[in-house]
Amino acid sequence: MESKNLVKYIGLGVLAFVAVIIFFNSWQDVEPGEEGFVYKPYTTGVDTNVTYTEGTRFIAPWNEMITYNVRQLSKSYNQEVMDLNGTEVKVDVAVNYSAQKGHSPNLHLKHGPGYVSFIDDKAKGAIKDVIGRYTYEQVYSSKREVLENEMEEILKKDFEGNFIELHYVEIADVNLPDNIAQQITVKETQKQKNLTAKEKEKEEEYLANAKIEKARGDSALVVSARFKAEAIQLEAEQISKNPQYIELKKWEKWDGTGSPYGQNNVFGDKSISILKSN
Known about the structure:
Number of strands: 8
Largest sheet: 3 strands, antiparallel
Number of helices: 8
Strand order of the largest sheet: 3-2-5
Distance between the termini: 125 Å
Shape: elongated
């Protein structure tokens, strides 16, 4: 009798031990920045109705918790593409995306853990398509924001229904053949010289007016003219120290119509030449 009780107690002990192991192994973690869902291999498969945010969850040991990173991620693409005229342009483009929250099980079923390969194919196609619509000058200087917006429009349509969210596209760098890059540098340098010369003319004009008003005895106008001359001089100094200051002033004066760069010329259609006299 005692032997039977002993076997019974041992059996209960073993069952209790197994139950404890199963209980502790049934707790599964979803790390911060992840989203989880349950795969039920013996019943309904992937559960697309319930997703889990970070934390520890009790999942039956015969089921599996699958997790996906839902943070914003960035993928860079360094591509050589042809511009509108067939010139080879090298661009570095960053695509910022994330798995769509609440839809990680759908993403898993449609693309699986390697869904980034889908993003690669679509991003490379969008870059090639958009860059091919413009000349290298537009890509290099004035059209970056426009190009980024067009790439975003294409990728948003591609990602729609694929449970991927596009955050933004950024053109990080543009590299041109050396001879073309040098030509653009020369044009930009001349443009800056032209702007500086124009500001210098204004400064001299205001100083001349100040002398005239001083001779007339109007002190208020003298102060005003001197103030304007000093402002012009300061602006010229800013241009020489920081070429991008020119871009700021250009956009401040733009009225919203046409292009601030002029017609059919990214560098402007009314540039002047600076001739050095002997």
